[in-house]
Amino acid sequence: MFGGNLTDQDKGLERIFRPLPQTVIQANISPTEYEAAMKRGEIDFEGFWEEAAEELDWFKKWDKVLDRSGAPFYRWFVGAKCNIVYNALDRHIETRIKNKVAIIWEGEPGDMRKLTYYELYRKVNKFANVLTSLDVKKGDTVAIYLPNIPETAIAMLATAKIGGVHNVIFTGFSAMALRDRLKDADARVLVTADGFYRNGKVVNLKAIVDEALEECPGVETVVVVKRIASDIDMIDGRDLWYHELVDVESPEVEIEVMDSEDPLFIVHTSGTTDRPKGVVHVHGSYMVGVYKTFQWIFDIKETDIYWCAVDIGWITGHSYGVYAPLMAGATTVMYEGHVLYPKADRMWSMVEKYGINILYTSPTIIRMLRRFGSHLPLRWDLGTLRLLGSVGEPISPEAWLWYYKNVGKENCPIVDTWFQTETGMIMISPLPVSLLKPGSVGKPFPGVLMDVVDTHAKSKKPGEEGFLIVKNPWPAMFTTLYKDPQRYREIYWEKFPGYYYTGDMAKKDADGYIFVRGRADEVLNIGGQRVGALEMERALRDHKAVEEAAVVGIPDRIKGEVAKAFVVLKKGIEDSDDLINELKNKIRHELGSIAILKTVEFVESLPKTSSGEIMRHVLKTSQGSSKEAE
Ligand code: WT7
């Protein structure tokens, strides 16, 4: 098992956890149905997904489930007409879900808002009308630079409802990173806030926007949500207050009829290029994949209160924080701030206060909370919890077991879900009725065929490490990289012809359970967030003192991984602590707070292949002995 040496206390970790009797009794999908679906998925994945699609509402059904003719540009539900927002909101307004709470939101200072489906529907419609009044048309990008507040979901849904394409940009990104993304996505309208609360402080979001827009003439209109009511500069003719705009709009709007393959959103992610890439998702297949995986993996019930405790700006927030729970008609919790504010029991207090049944979070958060001890979760009543989820990075058996015992009280299965910005939906995860192995993400979802292979795409033997690939097209798959279809083909589909390359290393055990090791490419996973080594290297190289730089990931007890840079200085330049700080600040300034550069080591030269490529793996191995890495 990964994670190194087990301590005496942890020896029980190799255990397998059988499904809990009460889980099996209550589960939407019984073990027998699950097994049948797995078999069905193997022989007829198109049929499996077609049946899933039948559970949603379409304006017109498809002529064909899957068109492979333009592979790797696969097209799902060809000829169908739909809009994901119809499934997330409009259809519920005709049922008793209409008056159910859709979103429970808590601000970091403790303020709270609850919105029913009907209220959310009307707010979305009003903002959709605002966007139309700002001349947003089908296919136009609307950029959203907002924290976890209801207006973020409202802006996403409003954009999609009128056929626009949303591009949510995580609020941890700096002005420069924001600017790069706004330019790349050709955004003309940006929705933001005056600021928000984070870890007891105010983040002045609008000031960051103003800086970003100095060099971003494409953005003509900025809609500003008043969250903190601070004194901010509003630029005449460009900046408009959200509340003033929605006030005068009608709460009804015509929904745009979309082709199944029309774009829904862009999320930028880091990969093997020196700039982030816009991953494009479309209405039809995305809604099917996300809906079905949510129903089965999170085993959602009508009375459930579900909390996806991650930022809306990431794919997890899009798929399982907004779209899936709304399509399922569930009540979803949203939290603005830091999980350690004001104390490390904020999450537990919220579980008790709202009676949360399903909690979905990341290993970094679990490790962070674990560090504060097991007595904190004991102080709160966590008895409503029925199911736990983990996402974004490998979870060690130790952290898994802590979560299982201290949060789930050995009464809640843990679904460790593997997916990517590109896959849109969860691809590998146990179901609540599965056998659970701490540290394993379980098996691929029914209708998703994956394998661990060598460089020739040959299956690895059980226990052997290899490349993780997907063998069939799946719904919710991204359809291209924005403005760069060539890279889409090259990066993902050419390394193993005919298959999708995930960029991850993994191994399978004899039962087919997958253990994900981490990235095989130049992508770091810092606290469950992707940071491209090449993006950091580009920023370092831009510094006047730097000749060359290489960035690798080094282990970190809380964040899983942080970055270390090997830097060759220009001739005649002396290294110094000041220079190290300058380089660290440059990274933060250009890429944002998630790109944590922990250490800088100055070297004479970088190890390279004969063709001049930097051998990062050599640096990665050599850093094990470096004192600075500690
Ligand atoms: C990369 C994708 C999935 C949403 C958040 C991240 C890693 C993701 C797991 C997991 C081990 C995981 C992979 C993957 N990853 N989930 N359960 N166990 N690793 O989305 O930013 O696109 O990153 O995160 O390395 O390739 P992302």
CATH architecture of the domain at 114-259: 3-Layer(aba) Sandwich
Question: Order of strands across the widest beta sheet?
Answer: 12-11-8-6-7-14-15-23
Low-pLDDT residue intervals, each spanning 5 or more residues: 1-10, 624-630
- Report the principal-axis shape: globular
Structural class: alpha/beta
What fraction of the residues are assigned to beta strands by DSSP? 15-25%
| CATH class descriptor name of the domain at 114-259 | Alpha Beta
Mean pLDDT equals 94
Enumerate how many helices there are, as a single number: 19
Overview of this protein structure:
By secondary structure, the protein is α/β, with parallel strands linked by helices. Among the domains are: 114-259, Rossmann fold, CATH 3.40.50.980; 523-629, ANL, C-terminal domain (GMP Synthetase, Chain A, domain 3). The chain contains 19 helices and 30 strands. The chain has an 8-stranded mixed sheet with strand order 12-11-8-6-7-14-15-23, with helices on both faces. A 7-stranded mixed sheet has the order 5-4-17-16-18-19-20, with helices on both faces. Helix 2 (31-43) packs across helix 3, helix 10 crosses helix 11 and helix 17 crosses helix 18. The model is unreliable at 1-10 and 624-630 (pLDDT under 50). 5'-O-[(S)-butoxy(hydroxy)phosphoryl]adenosine binds next to helix 11, strand 20, strand 24 and strand 25.
